[in-house]
Write a structure and sequence with these properties.
This protein has 295 residues and is of the alpha/beta class. It has helices at 2-21, 26-31, 37-48, 50-53, 58-65, 69-78, 84-94, 106-124, 129-140, 151-164, 177-189, 205-216, 254-271, 273-289; strands at 144-148, 170-173, 194-198, 220-225, 238-241. 60% of the residues lie in helices and 8% in strands.
Length: 295
């Protein structure tokens, strides 16, 4: 009897956890987790055709979403279900409710998500004191090291390109491992005191290793990322965040781009006359070399 009672309590506890784990709304369920690109294809199909999906086997769902059947299995486990049969039973009840409270198509919904992230960033920048202080620190580090891996490499390159117009020596590093270590130590010997790391989901392990190496050299680290709390934020001295939109198979980084441009603008403010001189010098060079097409 004692064993049976203990088992019943364990079953009740598991049921309670599952009730808390699975939201009533399918939309809440699909947006409550960080999904891989393959899992987003499944979520997109479910969001657009919930009634059809409720009648599909896992193999059929995989075919319709154009993913593998193991991807469906991992997706269902991530959402908190014990198996596909339980997930399909949930779908049959969830489809009686409105799934997506939004107007327009999925492309418009993704733009709406970007707009929400931009609105949140706008509110965050109402107090510009901290951004200006961080920008001043970046200008004081000569050279300034900028790092990004995988999808974040493009954002790091964009920030580094713009910062070069303001800062006298920006060094973009997208290699990892021992090559990164060589370049970082060389920059440190040349006077670098700050490293900027751009790290967006999904966070590469190389990003954590780079932040640790920078800290071991005594460099101040600024992390530009999508949220204030993650596996990487304890490794950084300063964190600037802007949300990413996850409606598509791949994230949209519109708010992160705006944050990066705002940081360069703050660097220009911190640099003062020297920034104006560098910008004017570039414009003279561009005109001399006829770099750009006339509008």
């Amino acid at each position: 009897m004692i064993h049976s009672a203990g088992k019943n309590r364990a079953d009740e506890n598991r049921a309670g956890r599952k009730e808390n784990l699975v939201p009533r709304s399918l939309h809440e369920l699909l947006t409550a987790h960080r999904l891989t690109p393959a899992q987003r294809r499944i979520a997109s199909y479910l969001a657009e055709r919930p009634r059809d999906a409720a009648a599909l086997t896992s193999a059929e769902l995989a075919e319709h979403a154009q993913v593998s059947q193991p991807s469906v299995t991992r997706f269902v486990a991530l959402l908190g279900f014990d198996g596909y049969a339980e997930f399909r039973r949930y779908l049959r009840t969830a489809t009686t409710e409105p799934v997506l409270e939004r107007g327009g198509n999925k492309f418009q919904a993704a733009v709406d998500a970007d707009l929400r992230n931009l609105a949140a960033l706008r509110a965050q920048l109402a107090d510009e004191t901290r951004l200006l202080a961080i920008a001043g620190r970046l200008m004081a580090s000569v050279p300034l090291v900028v790092v990004g891996y995988r999808v974040s490499a493009a954002q790091a390159a964009s920030f580094a390109y713009l910062a070069t117009k303001i800062h006298p020596d920006v060094r973009l590093l997208t290699d990892s491992g021992s090559v990164f270590g060589d370049h970082l130590r060389h920059a440190h010997r040349c006077g670098a005191r700050t490293l900027v790391m751009v790290a967006l989901p999904r966070y590469p392990r190389e990003s954590a290793a780079a932040l640790r190496q920078a800290r071991s050299l005594g460099l101040h680290t600024l992390l530009i990322t999508d949220r204030l709390v993650s596996a990487l934020t304890p490794l950084a001295d300063d964190v600037l965040s802007a949300g990413v939109a996850s409606e598509f198979v791949f994230d949209s980084h519109a708010a992160v781009v705006s944050l990066s441009v705002a940081l360069v603008e703050a660097m220009a403010d911190a640099a003062g006359a020297s920034a104006r001189q560098r910008l004017e010098g570039f414009e003279d060079y561009a005109a001399e070399q006829d770099l750009f097409l006339r509008e």
